Amino acid sequence: MSTATPIETAEAARTARPARRGIVDTDVHPVPRSADEIRQYLPMPWRDLYQGERRSFYNNPVHGSRLDSVPPDGGPKGSDPDFLRKQLMDSYGVTHPILVPRSFCNIQPDPDYGSAIAAAFNEWLADTWLDRYNHDGAFKGSITINHHDPQRAVEEIERWAGHPHMVQVMTDSGARAPFGQRQYYPIYEACERRNLPLGIHPGTEGMGVNIQPTPGMPTHYIEWHCSMSLAFQSHLVSILTEGVFERFPGFRIALLEGGVAWLAPLMWRLDAYWKALRREIPWVRKAPSEYLRDHVRLASQPLERPADDRHLLSNLESMDAEHILMFSSDYPHWDFDSPTRAFPKLPDDLWQKIFSDNARAFYGLT
Amino acid sequence: MATYAVGRVSELPPGHRKIVTVDGRSIGVFNVHGRFYALRNACPHQGAPLCQGSLGGTAAASRPGEYIWEREGEILVCPWHGWEFDVTTGRSIVNPHRTRVRSYQVSVEHAVPGENPALGENPAPGEHPASVGITSPADEDERVPTFPVTVDDGAILLHL
Asked: Distance between CA atoms of A20 and A324, rounded to whole angstroms?
């Protein structure tokens, strides 16, 4: 079977708009070639234990990653940097993929093991995608932390904060308590001190030690996957009401793959309650939604796409997409959003902000 | 209508496919239970190379809780987002009235006796069920073409 990548390339060339600067893709998943690639960075006793653990159920019944993302020389999807460059960067004009490894470290009940997995992923990323595969500095990375172990998480942040290509700290939205609570503050303090945003990414909701953000465990993958945005809504409400951004004025978060269209109505609701109930949280000195532009960004994928584009465009305006939305594709995962097809036609200046400028400013890219 | 020889019947047994570039278009040619079908290799959703998707069956139900596995070998699943298409018609399973992959007629002409007896079932050009019916002009953006295919002396012929 011959490949058909020219279709994609031609499609991208036909519809791509002239950009002053290239696209920044804020959610791209680099995959180890094998569990051994990670295991070699693990100390004993973890090295003998690690088998590349992932969540044990709620797996996609169709396929978890794009079938056409298998590297030509074999290996797991998303594991070949040259093929990723060709299929994502060259096809669409992406100049900077923000790499978000999926370690699944925070499903572990043993905080030492979870933190060891996080550390191993960081060493692997630094040695491979941010060094050997990164001759041009295009790849930017995320410091994986195990938020169940804030002390070790802070050590990991300090260990990598000076790395020239690590642009954020990253953890999973699957959690045991909402992210506004104080047990996480050492992590936020370290992020603020090192001027690194915290990226939050789904995938371990209800897995291992994490609580599922629904009334009980849903039956099907489709329910679980659709409900992942509930974790993000809960974390955001918690962070805003607990006054995290008052306590850490330089702290910033990026909500990755948590959905987009829910933001505006949730803020309408929260702002309304704040007017009545602010005495319960007097440290929240302005309407909760007013913290977003200074502190919160959303990655676009999976972008909700109503049948009528006008409804989406109205929603983007309501959520202040011009300032807080950053394009993401989720390459190579199955629900990849194409840079040329996921959005309806946008005004040029709005396209430029969402696809490039907002992320460049947020992550300090030139 | 131009005709292109895109391969030999002997290289494409039932369940197999071949993706070819003809007249600047990438097209997938499929042998489904001995009949040939051709679809444009682009998903109407976000432009994925549809014909690289998995080919199998799909689940139906007459009531909640029931699984009826059916149409084995006839359902093409987009390699990106998993949208299902009927490879024999190009129609979307989830929304047959709005999303249709354009299919192309493939026929087998003068099949070599014994080479593949099932090939004689392919309809003549113009009779192919996948070559009919576009629902409305408003759907133009959401359909992917199907093309007629015939076979001549064991050669698979694609008609554009």
From this structure: 19
* Chain A residues near residue B19 by CB distance under 8 angstroms: 1-4
Search chain A and give the residue with CA nearest B58.
Answer: A62
Instruction: Indicate the pTM of the whole model.
Output: 0.86
* CA dihedral over A7, A9, A10, A15, signed as positive or negative: positive
Mapped to the 3 state alphabet, what secondary structure does chain B carry? CCEEEEEEHHHCCCCCEEEEEECCEEEEEEEECCEEEEEECCCCCCCCCHHHCEEEEEEECCCCCCCEEEEEEEEEECCCCCCEEECCCCEECCCCCCCECCEECEEEECCCCCCCHHHHHCCCCCCCHHHCCCCCHHHHHHECCEECEEEECCEEEEEC
CB contacts of B41 in chain A (<8 Å) are: 4, 7
Closest CA of chain B from A34, distance in Å: 23
* Amino acid making up residue A255: L
User: How many Cβ atoms sit within 10 Å of the Cβ of residue A336?
Assistant: 25
Tell me the ipTM for this assembly: 0.79
Residues A190-220: pLDDT tens digits? 999 999 999 999 999 999 999 999 999 999 9
Poorest-pLDDT segment among A92-96, A140-144, A229-233, B42-46:
B42-46
Q: How far is the C-alpha of A139 from the C-alpha of A123, rounded, in Å?
A: 15
Distance from CA of B7 to the nearest CA of A (A): 12
User: φ, ψ for residue B111 (rounded to 5)?
Assistant: -60, 140
Residue B114 to residue A249: CA distance in whole angstroms: 78
Is A68 in contact with B26 (Cβ distance < 8 A)?
no
- Distance of alpha carbon A294 from alpha carbon A315, whole angstroms: 20
d(CA A225, CA A91): 28
Token pair, residue A313, equals: 């465009």
Nearest CA among B84, B92, B18, B28 for reference residue B56: B84
Q: Do A334 and B81 touch (CB under 8 A)?
A: yes
Which chain A residues have a beta carbon less than 8 Å from that of B17? Answer: 1
CB pairs under 8 A between A and B: 68
C-alpha span between B61 and B80 (Å, rounded):
25
DSSP A237-264: HHHHHTTHHHHSTT--EEE-SS-STTHH
Task: Report the residue from B79, B81, B82 with minimal CB separation from A68.
Answer: B79
pLDDT tens column, A275-299: 999 999 999 999 999 999 999 999 9
Find chain B residues with C-beta within 8 A of A334's C-beta.
80-82
